[in-house]
Each structure stands twice: as structure tokens, then as C-alpha cells.
Amino acid sequence: MFVAGxxxxxxxxxxxxxxxxxxxYFQRLxxxxxxxxxxxxxxxxxxxADESYFxxxxxxxxxxxxxxxxxxxxxLKHNGKVYTVVIQDAKTDTLILIIRQKVKLDxxxxxxxxxxxxxxxxxxxxxxxxxxxxxxxxxxNYINGIELFWN
Length: 151
Known about the structure:
Order of helices and strands: HHEEEHEEEEH
Oligomer: single chain
Distance between the termini: 11 Å
Mean pLDDT: 76
Largest sheet: 5 strands, mixed
Helix content: 25-40%
Number of helices: 4
Strand content: 15-25%
């Protein structure tokens, strides 16, 4: 179910186990993927970039209004590898530094409309914005893959 993109909560319901146990196993699988990937290799080609917030706070709240939640940033190569990291904040300097360290120049970066990505307008990356409030995909341009990884 992890590979199929099912959420841990839905998987728990389908197989009849506690959601905490399912979340533990999903997190363990993510850790195994991370432990067995080559961290020094740059992502290239089409890469999704997105930030998310986990834990704490009030259910249903997201973004900066989510006191107590932990921000995480992720990069996903279309049909390939994933890189995620817990971040202190989702400010421009934080996100751009990670993109520059982990994405090969001349790659295509798909991202949301969060203002911290505005700096990509003047950097060496070709990029496309995907507005979550309007759509999750535009032909081949999407950022849903990283969202599925986190669920």
C-alpha cells in the first residue's frame, strides 16, 4: 500500500491495524529508502519541489498557521529518487540552498506558488509554478508525487 500511494491512515483501516502502527511502518519504509539511497547524487531532469508540515498543532491547519508542526522540504525526480529534509523554516534562503545543493543545473523544477520559490526566477533553473488552489497538474507539470510520498 505504501508503494501504491495509499496514506498510512487508509492502509490501517484497510488491513485492520492501529493507525499509529501503520504510520510507524510507513515511516520505517521511508527511512529504509533514505538509508539505501545515494545522498551525494544530484537530482536531474524534471524535479518536484514542495514543503509540508507534520505533527502537532490543530488538525486541518497547515502552513505558518500550524503552531507546533515540523516543516519538511522535499525534492522528487519524476519517476526516480526522492530527497527530504526537516528544515528550520521555509524561507527563500533555506529552500534555494537545498535546491542548489541537490538539483543539477539546467534541470526543470516544478514548484508551488509559495513566495520562497520566487528566487528561482533569477537562478539557472528552468521552472514551472503549479497553483494548488487551481490544479495539481498541467499536462506533465505537477507536484503531486512528493505529496504522495509524504502521506
